[in-house]
Amino acid sequence: MLREKVIQMLKDRGVELKEIAEIVYKLQSPFNPDLTMEECLESVERVMDKREVHHTVMTGIALDMAAENNALPEPLLTIIKNDEPLYGVDESLAVAIASIYGTIGFTSFGYLDKNKIGVMARLDDKNNGQVHCFLDDIIAGIASAASARLAHSRGNDIL
User: Fold this and answer.
1) Which of 60, 112, 139, 148 could cross-link 104 (Cys pair, CB 3.0–4.6 Å)?
2) Angle at which helices 104-115 and 89-98 pack, to 10 degrees?
3) CA 10 → CA 5, 6, 86, 95, 153, distances in Å?
4) Domains in the chain and their CATH numbers?
């Protein structure tokens, strides 16, 4: 199944769903003191059920791997390897994931894109020989969508 393939691709790049759930917890726990890691992981898993997420993750990882293997033309190769700040295509792909559960995902995505917490900080390290131009933003997109999903489910309790 495609979902399992994508989760394995994330694992192969050093990312576990639990690490994404930890980011979700950091985003949502200030607003929900009763939130559990299990709820956060469940929300990440629901995001990972979406086909558009599968496609985005596969595309981003493939581009990162192609850059690692010098399999992209210049100047694109250098732009992706250096994760040039004005490139923006990596964020554009990830924002598509972040918006799955509404516009609240944009706010969280912007915060994560600037602050690179949890596994994102490790992926943003350019000294380990791997390219994660797309993957760190994709993780931010998944975490933002999962966080938005939780916010919407909790928001219904208020009404």
Assistant:
1) 148
2) 140
3) 9, 6, 25, 18, 26
4) 2-158 (1.10.3760.10)
pLDDT in tens, 11-45: 999 999 999 999 999 999 999 999 999 999 999 99
Residues 142 and 47: beta-carbon distance below 8 Å: yes
Torsion sign over Cα 12, 19, 128, 130: positive
CA gap 54, 9 in Å, rounded: 10
Cα 22 to Cα 123: distance, rounded to the nearest angstrom: 15
CA atoms of 10 and 141, how far apart (whole Å): 14
Phi-psi region of 131 (alpha: psi -120 to 50; beta: other; left: phi over 0): beta
Q: Which residues of 4-24 are buried (b: 16+ CB within 10 A; e: fewer)?
A: eebbebbeebebebebbbbbb
